[in-house]
Specification:
Length: about 60
């Protein structure tokens, strides 16, 4: 999956094996879906739609 690394100002490709998905629940009950990865010690986050989130076959972060 492609991420944008703000630190290096470049797009980077993270293999699916290194990805994790998570859901954030806001105070008003709205859910935000995101995928996290890491490149050279830099944590990367990408917000995705519910359809992309459901289709992605990677482990979910516990406690979400």
């Amino acid at each position: 999956m492609e991420f944008y690394n703000v630190k290096t100002r470049q797009k980077v490709e993270i293999p699916d094996g290194d990805l994790r998905k998570n859901t954030l629940v806001q105070k008003n009950g709205r859910r935000t879906y995101l995928v996290t990865g890491e490149e050279n010690g830099t944590k990367l986050v990408r917000f995705v739609s519910k359809q992309q989130y459901d289709a992605l076959q990677v482990p979910e972060i516990e406690g979400s």
